Amino acid sequence: MAHASTTHEPRNGPKLPVLEREHLILNNRSYHWITERICGIVENKQPLLWWLLFIPSALVAMLGVGGGLALLVSTGVGVWGMTNTVFWGWDITNFVFWIGIGHAGTLISAILFLTRQNWRTSINRAAEAMTIFAVCCAGIFPAFHVGRVWMAWFLAPIPNSNAIWQNFKSPLLWDVFAVSTYFTVSLIFWFLGMVPDLATIRDRAKPGLRKMLYGIFALGWRGGNRQWSHYEMAYLLLAALSTPLVLSVHSVVSFDFATSVVPGWHTTIFPPYFVAGAVFGGFAMVLTIMIPARAIYGLHDMITMKHIENMAKIILLTGTIVGYAYLMELFVAFYSGAIYEMEAFKYRMTGPYWWAYLAMMSCNVISPQVFWFKKCRENLWVIMAVSMAVNVGMWFERFVIIVTTLARMWLPGDWKYYSASPFEIILFVGTIGMFLMLFLLFLKFLPCINIAEVKWTLRESDPHFDDINDHPDDGTVKIPAYQHELPETTDKGTTV
Amino acid sequence: MSKRIWQHPEIPAEETTVSWRSVGQLEGSPAFREYLEREFPASAAAMADEADAETSRRSFLKLMGASSALAGLSMVACRRAEKYTVPYTQAPEWVIPGKALYYASSMPRATGAVPVVVTTFEGRPTKLAPNTLHPDSDGTDAFVQASVLDMYSPSRSQKILHHGKVAKRADLEKALAEATASGKVGFLFGADESPTRTRLTKELAAKFSGAKFYSYEPLAPAATASRAVADFSKADRIISFDCDFASLDQQGPVTPFFDRRKPEGKGYKAQRDVKSMNRLYAVESIFSLTGGMADHRLRVEPSKVLGIAAAVAKKLNVSHPAVASAPALDAKTQQWVDAAADDLLAAKGKALALAGSRTAPALRSLVQAINASLDAVGNTLQVLQSDNAGFGDLAALKKDLDSAAVEYVFLLTPANPAYDAPSDLDFVASLQKAKASFHLGLRTDATAHAATWHIPAAHYLESWSDARSAKGLHTLVQPMILPLYDDCVSELELLSALLDGKLTSGEDSAAFAAVRKTFSGDNAAWKKALREGFVAGTAVNGALAAETSATVSYQAASETSLDVIFSTDGSVFDGRWIDNAWLQESPDPISKLTWDNAALIAPKTAKALGIYDQVILLEDPRAASPVDGEAGNRRAPVIKVALGGKEIEIPVLIAFGLAENTIVLPLGYGQGYDKDDELNRGPVNAGHVGLVGVNRGVNVYPLRDSATTYMAQGATVSLTDKRYSVALTQEHHAMYGRALAREISTLDGEKGSFEKQYDAVAKQGNDSHAPKNISLYRQEGSSTWDPDKNGNAKPHLSDDLHQWAMNIDLSSCMGCNACLVACQAENNIPVVGKEQVAKGRAMHWIRMDRYFAQNKDNTFDADSPAMVPQPVACVQCESAPCETVCPVNATVHTEDGLNAMAYNRCIGTRYCANNCPYKARRFNYFDYNKRNPLIAHNLYKGPAGVTQVGEAPHLQRNPNVTVRMRGVMEKCTYCVQRLKDAKIRQKRGQKQEVLLSGKTSPDVPVTTGTLRIPVDSVKVACQEACPADAISFGNLLDEKAATVVRGRELARSYELLHYIGTIPRTLYMARVKNPNEKMPDAKFVGTATIHMA
Q1: Closest CB from A259, A350, A413 relative to B732
Q2: To the nearest whole angstrom, how far is the Cα of A170 from the nearest Cα of chain B?
Q3: Chain A: residue nearest B872 by CA?
Q4: What are the φ and ψ backbone dihedral angles of A205, each rounded to 5 degrees?
Q5: Minimal Cα distance from B879: which residue of A?
Q6: Contacts by A41-46 with C-beta closer than 8 Å and gap 24+?
Q7: What is the pLDDT of residues A111-134, one digit of tens each?
Q8: Residue A75: pLDDT above 60?
Q9: Which of A258, B453, B474, B1070 could form a disulfide with B761 if both were Cys (CB 3.0 to 4.6 A apart)?
Q10: Which B-chain residues 626-655 have CB contacts (< 8 A) with chain A?
Q11: CA–CA distance, A434 with A136 (Å, rounded to integer)
Q12: Residue B76 pLDDT
């Protein structure tokens, strides 16, 4: 729990100066303010901008995902651009891309929870939602890229008349289990964390359908001590359960490549490299989405520059790990002495897809380096630009790994150039639309910040908090914040 | 609700019924009364009591719940196709549904009939294989393999046409009677020979004093009294002048030539012996497959070939007018010629010179003289009397038509003279002068449209005939099926009609009687001939017909005055196969182009002409030019070729190893265009071709006249701003230092002696330092370690009867497409169309990789690369990367060592194919078998697209091979259906032996020997078809008795990509080049991969 006191005064002794700890919630916001602000988003009408974003993304999702899949299933995988050399293209690229996006959510909610990083509370709900939606988008690709999707149930271990079991040696099957487990656990974790907040909305709603629906999902939450005690234990256990999943899912995804015999895929560095890349890409996407949301809904007091800076630091760290992996791959290929390995990487850099490699390197390795500078970590425009670059770069990373490798394998006689067909692009754009649409719906219908947990981080939540004694030199605040209403803020977050 | 019991009325006492339901009724037995009263037979569950009789709501729900739960869980019987099978009311002789029947027959061709064995299922011919009983059996090339598809082609001509309109048979018979009455009839035959036809022509000549006979095929020489056939088994030294005798310009059976490319001899039975190998010198301007096989290849402009031949002749002291006028050669070439001539002379009596059958008479006469001086005739060259002696050529027919000496003309040639006749003849104009012309053909081509009458021809698999094989043996052509369409008539039927006045076809065919009459023997001999397909000892030797020796002088070719070669196309031949989808989709062996033709030009000449940068960017990553030629490959620039006042526009490709200042124009394309044509050339002659042939390539025949049937001089080339999409199956032409298709030389070189090179084949390239492959499971030192007698790990074999394996000997593989098309025919491989090939989705299970290897140090001719083909199909890895990654177990290993595909289990994740190092797997991106891929964008229309045309193409399918649907991966499985069939036959044979011997089964021991298929008795489709004898296949457990085992134990066999440790069952055997050390280019021969170590 939070120990938000800024000075520590021993009962008997001299007053020692202590660096003031940065507040997680700014402007001494009260419990009431937080509830009002977050529930307000759900309860009030959405700003015009929401509709301007929602309608196009819903349309894009419908046409791209709905139409794209209808065409794909009715016609054949041939509507995409794959060849008999490059059998995977944008499909698996997009799958790995979306799965990677999904990593930040669980990392924030589980690992940072276990390590008691309280700054996570302002962003974890949205990040988890992002995880769920990203995995939804990701799942579309492996499910529908197969030639006979109506036979995809062969992947599930259900009894069948042929008495054929799955091939447990196949990393693709591991994927099926890893991704579905990850999705299930993430969903439960997300939902469980939302129960107290759903109850809050329920309690604030007027009787009617709305109250009933929130009531159903609030699972009868009353906020009693016993409920809180059970709830916290359950949450802790789920966090512990999710933590290995964060590491395992992308490791398993990387096995799709690492266990193959394909030069450029067959490398032991893949699991950690993929996990780092996933966290990297995931945080970039959290920033890409949260920075505009924060501005639109005026959440500056809860999602502070400290949060954003922390995330920028993680991007810098993971980006550097990814960069190290890229260079290490090159070194190992050179050191292997095998012409196939060397040339696989040579063609990545200088072959027909050099532009993809260049995009990957500059976006993923070079662009985050600006975060060494505090000024850059504090400039939202720079952060937005870098996050966007990382999103693009991480997509290209997967493209480089999958396509450029397959296009230049062992025998030059089979080398071919692959380019995506419009239908592949449409489906990918459709999933972006679907992702945005789901996220916008989430903003409209669910509390986008964890109301309960954010309140824990307030100094007032500390049982030992003494607002008068903790502010001996500050004559302005004599009344505890929670007994005191502050004036409303504008959308820009400035006090009126 | 109680159960109703039907009360049967009593039979009135006086009534006597005449029919009974059973004897019981007659007897009125109590059992029968009970049976009548029961609603269900006794075996059906009887209701025990009243409660049972009515199903309660509870029990109903119980049952329904359980059954729907089971149905939902197991999802059995979700999809079951409803099909009805109807038994024969009268079974045809021998036919067992689902079992193949084999008949001997042959395919008539200009270079001699190809003896074949036809596989038929329920009367449908589906597949051709060479008839190995026949002494001239020579494999079957791609054309033969694909010819079966022609029979079922949806665009095949089906109706008699009169002036392009469907006509009645009676009207045709009237027209034939008119022709008979006139007597001034001309017959234009093909260049093939047929004893029965010859007999009938004599009868016709006797009946009609005005009957005249001609033969014409655009790419065959005019009929002469005799023809020379090479005997490659005896030829130690061969020199070829622009002669692609190995594939497109055959001069005799070629298998013996290829057998002598193996240092260990046919079947790898002997010790390696360089002296047993033959040596081939090729002087040529295009890069032909023969040139690719040559030990020494000299690339010169076609106009210089005569000069080179003259220089060789001079060295051999041949007297011939051409020798005197032989131009002086540069020192290097002279050295080449001298050394080659010396080598030929040293092998006098065992040497052979060959000239292309379309080259200038001067060259052909010079080569005759060289052969005479080398004592070739009677040794390496056999001269046969020709059945077609005395037949006129097309020019003679034109003259007779113009002078009205011929009023009625029968166009029976498989060629298409209205399209492919020399342009200066203006044959169509003369044809119009005839009172009536009758065209007999499988297609309604240009000639069919130009003729008054078109008669649909019966395919050779539908008609009785006979022919002469390459070495002149009387060979029979038997029908496998009645003609698919009632109007079809065969050549012999048409000739008989003129003799007998009655046009017969189908069941009443007069052709059988005619063929039987030609065959003079008794019925037993006839049956034997039918069974074996030929009559022994029927070849007639003749005297060599001398070619005219008047020499011609050529001007030197330059960039502004290019030499042109009108080359035979590897896919459509002279244009006759334009509607054959298998051939159209099989890549050109050299350029790898499908579905079109394109001009070929050497890189340096292209640079000099300033079109190099526009043309495909060469794909050598080490060169300064951009890395990939890929994007460029798909849109070839169109050039304008002007020659003798005529112009054509044709896309152009770069061709390595082509002579400089030469442009190659493949013949046979551009027969018709419709409105969808990419270059907007249509609609023109759209009715001349079917869906396969429409909009295909460019017609280059207009540039070719009587004097320039093979080559022309003085062409100019200019670039247009048009571009044309080309579908290439291979976009990269170099091995990039990877030692894939390996080559060694019999000469001692920098890598050591021949023996040393031979023994080090497996260590070439990256494999020289690949670590030993160690099994995870039975590692040395582990408790399960169980080594063989040599201390090596034993292979993990679970079937101790059969373990299949294959060898591909690159020493004799020339890279033709015979195996590729044979595989397509055997395994129901779909055609995907140009659009899909261009996307890289060709479905051929065998990918014919072809690599050029350039030796930069080659001081003789640095721009003349070596060419090594490498057919790659699934190599059936023992440790298969595809198997471990399939999530649903759709690709698994069989006990006899195959990497099997369970098509029904495959869901199409394509992971197997990504992980396949050989990229040997093919994915059905669309429903190629169901949707018609030939209509533009049809595949992309999904359910709204057009399905395949007609039933006919489906009849060709092999019923023992699954037809794959979309979304399924497929690949080579060593013709598993043949292997299974052989095993079943072996077991059944054992059973029959037991029955015949009268012993009881316990008395007959079942041993490995009785259950194992006899050595080398089962053949796979590619192996069977291979004219080069390059593929051996068999059972590893037969040990040294099996050819495949003898081959793979040789040191020159190697695993492709040994480095990965997949342990492939298909091994490759390095090519052995046999250069002459005195030749100036000797040390660069056979080094294509040796430097990669």
Answers
A1: A413
A2: 4
A3: A413
A4: -80, 150
A5: A261
A6: A41/A297, A41/A443, A41/A444, A41/A447, A41/A448, A42/A201, A42/A444, A42/A445, A42/A446, A42/A447, A43/A201, A43/A204, A43/A205, A46/A443, A46/A444
A7: 888 888 888 888 888 889 999 999
A8: yes
A9: B1070
A10: 627-628, 630-631
A11: 9
A12: 47
CA distance B843 to B972: 11
d(CA B698, CA B652): 11
Q: B732 at the A interface (CB within 8 A)?
A: yes
Please tell me the distance from the alpha carbon of residue B343 to that of residue B724, in angstroms, as a whole number.
47
* Candidate from A97-106, A373-382, B864-873, B1051-1060 with smallest mean pLDDT: A97-106
Q: Which two tokens stand for residue B818?
A: 């015979």
Contact between chains at B907 and A151 (C-beta distance less than 8 A): yes
B885: contact with A, CB 8 A cutoff: yes
Q: Is B926 on the interface with A (CB under 8 A)?
A: yes
Rounded to 10 degrees, what is the CA torsion of A377, A380, A384, A387?
20
Q: Comparing C-alpha atoms, which of A265, A170, A98 is closest to residue B911?
A: A170
- Which residue, among B910, B912, B964, would best test binding to A if mutated, counting the most A CBs under 10 Å from its CB? B910
Q: What is the sign of the dihedral through the CA atoms of B512, B516, B522 and B524?
A: negative
Question: 């991704």: which residue's tokens?
Answer: A179
Both structure tokens of A299: 């959440």
pLDDT in tens, B823-848: 999 999 999 999 889 888 999 999 99
Place of tokens 């005219």: B548
Provide the whole-model pTM.
Answer: 0.87
At what angle are helices A124-144 and A171-204 packed, to 10 degrees?
Answer: 140
Q: How many CB atoms lie within 10 A of CB B881?
A: 22
**pLDDT of B923-936, one tens digit each?**
999 999 888 888 88
Place of tokens 């023994």: B759
ipTM: 0.88
Would the CB atoms of A339 and B630 count as touching at under 8 Å?
no
- Quick one: pLDDT at residue B797? 65
Beta carbons of B847 and A414 less than 8 Å apart = yes
DSSP for residue A362: I
Rounded CA separation B137/A359 (Å): 59
One-letter amino acid of B210:
G
pLDDT at B951 over 70: no
A-chain CB neighbours of B850 within 8 Å are: 413
Residue B1024: what residue type?
E
Cβ-Cβ contacts under 8 Å, A142 against chain B = 909
B872 to A155: CB separation less than 8 angstroms, yes or no:
no
Q: Do A76 and B1062 lie within an 8 Å CB cutoff? A: no
Catalogue all structural domains in chain B, each as residue range(s) with its CATH number.
Answer: 161-223+389-463+470-520 (3.40.50.740)
Facing B840 at nearest CB: one of A84, A142, A337: A84
| A82 with B969: Cβ contact below 8 A | no
Calculate mean pLDDT across residues A78-90. Answer: 92
Q: Which residue of B has its CA nearest to A72?
A: B942
Instruction: Retrieve residue B1059's tokens.
Output: 């480095």
Q: What is the pLDDT of residue B43?
A: 42
Residue A448 to residues A44, A101, A125, A126, A193, Cα–Cα distance (Å): 14, 18, 6, 6, 12
Distance of CA A418 to the CA centre of its chain: 30
**pLDDT per residue over B93-144, tens digit each?**
778 877 888 999 999 999 889 999 999 988 889 999 999 999 988 889 999 9
Instruction: Provide the token pair at B650.
Output: 């044709």
For residue B980, give Cα distances in angstroms to B706, B711, B894, B921. Answer: 54, 51, 12, 22
Which of the four pLDDT bands, split at 50, 70 and 90, describes residue A493?
Answer: very low
Closest C-alpha to A130, from A297, A305, A278: A278
Q: Which residues of B touch A77 (CB under 8 A)?
A: 908, 923, 925, 966-967
